[in-house]
Amino acid sequence: MTHSALLKPRRHSVAVKVGSVTVGGDAPVVVQSMTNTDTADVEATVAQVAALARAGSELVRITVDRDEAAAAVPHIRDRLMLKNIDVPLIGDFHYIGHKLLADHPACAEALAKYRINPGNVGFRAKRDTQFSQIIDIALKYDKPVRIGVNWGSLDQELLTHLMDENAVSARPVPAAAVTREAIIRSGLLSAERAEELGLGRDKIILSAKVSNVQDLIAVYADLAGRCDYALHLGLTEAGMGTKGIVASAASMGILLQQGIGDTIRVSLTPEPGGDRTREVQVAQELLQTMGFRAFVPVVAACPGCGRTTSTVFQELASDIQDHIRDNMPIWREQYPGVEALNVAVMGCIVNGPGESKHADIGISLPGTGETPSAPVFVDGKKVVTLHGPGIAAEFKKMVLDYIENRFGPGERRPAAKSA
Question: Within a 13 Å sphere around the CA of 208, how many CA atoms are in the beta-carbon half?
């Protein structure tokens, strides 16, 4: 059975156009991220949006929480356009989104999508009025809306109502199940109301975020079975470092395998001074590892053991991987298809030659205590054996030459001769 046969077909969803990007329908799963700058700081926000876009974020969400932030949005959009960065900007609104969008029409026009939270779009009698005002503005400017439910700010009136119903039910369910139902129903009721106000299904994206892996899987599996809206996946408050990465990959990986999800965000808490683009890289690696998309060439490397106490292969694998990722923003334009490249950097003779043959280009270092010599395989055939202290630099040059030969303009040049 092939790997692709193990993947469940994507759940059918209505396609939504977000600026130049399509979410849902037959489009591939879209990677998005969010800035953590003060949006009112135009220079800092432009720099971070640009970095996220260059890293591969196809949508970028920014906080719009006050007048100064809303006023900055069109300037951010314009600065990005001057840098030839055409990434759609999503405005993240809470509490006063209706007022900010109404008071700042240039902001409403500049954004590619609005994200609103039904748990805090308005309270009691004002809820429907303020929700309706945002939908009316979305209709005016022809913008899609993400209705993003979050269990940290869930509609308490709806939750209380469902809890009361459950308490008198002949077959009550656990409180956690009621909370999950409240999350789902909040999103679906809000989407239904948006449609009543005139917003088409091709302008609505839903999300239902929780911070527990099993709850996220359960909520989205249920939600996916009850609607055909495009779905945004994300584990909220995922955490820092490996914990956030593992939790996000475990939960979203299962849902993606089931064909659920049209756009994803990996919500990582950055280390102090950490790089915000890390969440983009993790999201791309999740999709690429599962076989849904290809973003950057794959560098396979062995984990190392007692036969590989030399750090040469580790340094070489890291150097090539970093070099590829750093250059991908340029290479995507210069070398179409380069993201499909497979490189192998192996540390000893046990699995090294076989793994290298399976890669497009691979090297198998000899292991500990042996003469520094390493065969290089190109398209499954040994083409040369590298010797001496310059192995790393020579192989790196061969990788760059291979990329130019295979993906560059014009006809491919002949491969190197066999040793």
Answer: 31
Q: What is the pLDDT of residues 175-210, one digit of tens each?
A: 899 999 999 999 999 999 999 999 999 999 999 999
Which pair of tokens denotes residue 25? 């329908």
Q: Measuring CA to CA, which residue among 280, 313, 320, 328 is closest to residue 299?
A: 320
Going from the C-alpha of 374 to that of each of 312, 349, 377, 384, 411, the distances in angstroms are 11, 9, 10, 8, 29
Higher pLDDT, 9 or 215: 215
227 among annotated binding-site residues: no
Per residue in 217-274, pLDDT tens? 999 999 999 999 999 999 987 677 889 999 999 999 999 999 999 999 999 988 887 8
- Domains of the chain (ranges; CATH) run 16-290 (3.20.20.20), 298-407 (3.30.413.10)
Q: How far apart are CA 94 and CA 149, in angstroms?
A: 11
Q: How far is CA 357 from its chain centroid? A: 31
pLDDT tens by residue, 345-374: 887 777 678 878 889 999 887 766 556 678
Query: What separation in angstroms does the CA of 181 have from each of 87, 163, 175, 265, 292?
Result: 34, 10, 10, 23, 30
**Token pair 């999740």: residue:** 286
Note the pLDDT tens digit of each residue in 257-268.
999 999 999 999
Strand (E) or helix (H) holding 245: helix 241-257
The answer to whether 68 is annotated as binding is: no
Contacts of 263 (CB under 8 A, 6+ apart): 23, 24, 29, 30, 31, 32, 59, 205, 230, 231, 232, 233
Q: Is 355 flagged in the annotation as binding? A: yes
107 is in an annotated binding site: no
